[in-house]
Write a structure and sequence with these properties.
The protein is mainly alpha-helical. The chain has one domain. The protein is built from 4 helices and no strands. Helix 2 runs antiparallel to helix 3, helix 2 runs parallel beside helix 4 and helix 3 packs antiparallel against helix 4.
């Protein structure tokens, strides 16, 4: 079973690292902001459960300029 996946591992590792970096950065930014566009708990769910796109959505639409 793992033999079928093995050729794709070098392609998946950078995507997983990028996803982790985006997720952590978005969560840290969210925790430091006093106000966001919408409730913070909704943004936490978006960041955590919408893989790779969730943090990008937060940075584009969720941040409110102070």
């Amino acid at each position: 079973m793992f033999e079928e996946i093995r050729p794709y591992i070098p392609l998946l590792i950078p995507i997983l690292i990028l996803q982790l970096i985006l997720m952590i950065t978005a969560l840290v930014d969210l925790s430091r902001r006093a106000q966001t566009r919408g409730p913070k708990w909704v943004w936490v769910l978006v960041i955590l459960f919408i893989n790779l796109i969730g943090p990008i959505i937060y940075f584009v639409a969720g941040r409110q300029e102070e």
